[in-house]
Amino acid sequence: MTTGRAGAARAGGRAAYAAVDLGASSGRVMVGRVGPDMLELTEAHRFANRPVRLPEGLRWDVLALYAGVLDGLRAAGPVASVGVDSWAVDYGLLDAEGALLGNPAHYRDARTEGVAEKVWATVPPAELYAATGVQYAPFNTLYQLAAAAGTTQLGQARRLLLIPDLMTYWLTGEAGTELTNASTTQLIDPRTGDWAYGVAARLGIDLDLFAPLRRPGDPAGLLRPEVLEGAGLSGPVPVTAVASHDTASAVAAVPAAGERFAYLCTGTWSLAGVELAAPVLTEESRAANFTNELGLDGTVRYLRNIMGLWLLQECLRDWGDPDLDGLLREAAAVPGLRSVVDAADPVFLAPGRMPARIADACRATGQPVPATRAETTRCVLDSLALAHRRAVADAERLADHPVDVVHLVGGGARNALLCRLTADACGLPVVAGPAEAAALGNVLVQARAHGRVGEGDAARRLVASTQPLTRYAPRGGTGPWRAAQARLAAR
């Protein structure tokens, strides 16, 4: 018989799971309660994720993040398991004694500028894509490691842990490399689900730095006694490997029925694509800058990275964080498609002066320059919807994968204007929600590993039957969107 605090984690035919979900701007610990025909999610603790600009560059304050995780576990109360997901590509380096060698570099740090060209001199882009299926992004782990080559820190390192694996290591003392996140490093072969040994050897990257691969649902250790004591928990409490790339967790919680769907995982980034059984490694796919990342149960997340709500977040920061709801109401009244920018343009990658950079991009392409905050906001949202349209259409064509509906999950699901514009742009119905898809996917993988959710589509059916969803039908034709896309492509 289960009693006490452990029993409270498994009461009344349901179980509670702690999802540590770390985003690029904030972290949270959510508690998911799962039972027959029941899925509830509550926030135990939310905390800021503020990078710090040091003399050596932009760095993550990973100790503050870990402190937030511990505070969250204390607030969560008794749970049956813990799982950790986060953003991709970044990592911490440990010495021979397991101590962290400095704060992890931020993917927006300038250290990878010009590095890709040096990598391509050894492994040309076409060969790199054929071996790993990963889109070009200047911050991929592969390029970060190339930038770090010859540094004292990398020379002293005996272990490399991606961010969610680093948090899991601190919680349990056991090291592993979860596969869905590892597939973003540009060092995994998506056909085999194992390391791309040839690529690493040619570039002099020591794969022994990485801990053994884990897959979603694998055990990842038990909370250390010190963690249990600090969180006020009774042990043992297992930590379960989840789909630790937050996008992989979010896609696992897409409430889709069947296969003919596209997904948009929206937040700081927009990840737009389809779910496949096998990667697409064609030259046309590489030229379109689509990536093949691994998901739950051996699936492939075939998607394109779009700058996402980062554009609006940076504008809001520049404006002193005005009321967003009021700004969106004003933006809805602005005539649509007056000015658009390329939401995937690397010119928008760095922080700072975002309204001015958007104005510069409009000016450079001969379009009206937004004169008000509402006009800038409408430009951003029109541009994101246009990028969503192009990505969904390209994924459908390149993967030969018909799409009947778009599922928009993540923080953007709360932005009704973005959802409506995306439906209009794509000419397809958009089903918005759940907003906390990454945390839900995290919880569902834990629940499945512990026998609370069935295999296959059971988790998605549970999301669809328990979570609030909003359907947006496209309004009118897509002609104006085609014209705006052509106008942007012609500049």
Task: Provide tags for this entry.
seven-stranded mixed beta sheet, 20 helices, alpha+beta, 491 residues, five-stranded mixed beta sheet, disordered N terminus, 21% strand, 22 strands
Give me a quick take on this structure.
The chain is α+β, with helices and mostly antiparallel strands and 491 residues long. The protein is 38% helix and 21% strand.
> Order of strands across the widest beta sheet?
18-19-17-16-20-21-22
Radius of gyration: 22 Å
Strand content: 15-25%
Output the structural class.
alpha+beta
Number of helices: 20
Question: How many angstroms does the end-to-end distance come to?
Answer: 70 Å
What's the overall geometry?
globular
Helix content range:
25-40%
Poorly predicted tracts of residues: 1-6
Characterise the protein shown here.
Helix 14 (324-332) packs across helix 16 (373-398) and helix 16 (373-398) crosses helix 17 (416-426). Strand 5 (52-54) and strand 6 form a beta hairpin. By secondary structure, this protein is an alpha+beta fold. The strands form seven sheets. The protein has a seven-stranded mixed sheet, with helices on both faces. Strands 1, 2, 3, 4 and 7 form a five-stranded mixed sheet that branches. A two-stranded antiparallel sheet has the order 5-6. The chain is globular, with a radius of gyration of 22 Å. The longest helix is centred in the C-terminal third of the chain and has 26 residues, at 373-398. It has 20 helices and 22 strands. Residues 1-6 have low confidence and may be disordered.
